[in-house]
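Worked Example 4.2. Read the sequence first, then its structure tokens.
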Amino acid sequence: MCDDKDNPPKDAVTQGGCVVISRTKGNCMACHRIAGVPSGDIAPPLAEVSKRIPDKARLRAQIDDAPKLNPNTVMPPFGRHGILTQDEVDKVVEFLLTL
């Protein structure tokens, strides 16, 4: 579904999920885990992330510029460095809140 250039996903949640698993965009799976998806284990699992970070704005800030919130993090500032567009950051947040 994510790789279908002729029929890309239309909803924000699915688009955000595609960014999360994309090796050329978010590449979240290099560090984080989601059940059933080949993934890393050096960062917290993404399952139930909304229980750890219930505030949507805080979750967005974590993805957009994690070092601003925690200078010791190894998570890159996806939004600030232009790895993801602001729209992609928003869609990743929408996806993560469904886990």
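Now turn to a second chain, presented in exactly the same format:
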Amino acid sequence: MSDGIRTLSWRRKLLFSVFTTVVLFALCEGAARVYLRFGGADEAPIRIGFDVDAAVEIDRRNVLYRADDACFFRLRPNIHIPEHITETLFDIRTNSFGMRSPEISREKPPGALRVLCLGDSCTFGTGAGQNDTFPAQLERELRGRLEGRAVEVINAGVPGFSSFQARMLLESEGWSFSPDAVVLTVGCNDRKPARPDEKRVYDASKFLGDREYHALAQRRNVLALTRVIGRWLAPRGLSAEAELAAQQSGKRRVPVPEYREELIHVVEACRRRGVVPVIVVWALYFEADPSTIRGRPLSDHNRSFAEYQAMARQVAREKDVPLADVPKVVAGTRGLYADGVHLNATGYGLVAREIADVLMPKLQRPAD
């Protein structure tokens, strides 16, 4: 009899312990969800490389970016940052998809031409107003040339994006918009020094297959509690010595051989879907006006960009891809740049016309 009572008592204690643990965990999870929803920014501020883009610099309150499982970070949807807040000459608006474009439907309108522009802050249009980015001007340019046909050009550029992130955006969401052409403008951020934590995440995502990577990302977001704990335990930044060592190591966010792989991956994915790929080679300010650096040596950072430009041209040549070569477009023309990398409205207009020039023959080619 006493043995039966002891067994029953032991079972009750075990059940009570399990019940208490589950209830406590549920309360903590609920508190974590409330914290993430109402306790300020949904994510910790996002650090993007060492160099600070103008659009990144204005995001001191973490209103521009959100974390993303596929791309590491994305633009937040439905935001409006006026000029007086950005302290620049351009305002920022995003649609419900987190893109600096007018509102669109995911489903392409019947008979419409849809162009998806992927890339970094040069695609995003840092330095120009909402209607003066090259995707916005490309839309107007194509409408003028394709009179009577509906045209939508989607600006999916994200300041800070590398070629790897642009490809991940294409795969995770871009194809769902059924583009007829994909314009790829990457390289400016690929050349930048890699932070140790960036390289670790990049290498891990390259090691995992797409299916495993997305499965891992989904599991990471199942519990809000794990996100809160991870934020508390995450390192708050690198020491100055560690950052300097990383910059001096020569490691790039995406080395040139891997940059080549990323370009080819996008090109071949486009071809399999019957989509026209376009590669854009960007230009830095001194390529338009060499007098701006007369008598001064180029930094290693700027010299390295030539390697990425050369590789983009090589891939376009090998794969017979339309190429918009911006250095040739801006050469010898002053007053086109808002800063050392980003164009102004006039400069972006020249890029839009060049892209239209190389894209139009492919659009007008009769079906095989």
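Notes for the reader: Confidence is low (pLDDT under 50) at residues 40-57, 198-222, 227-243. The first strand starts at residue 65 and ends at 68.
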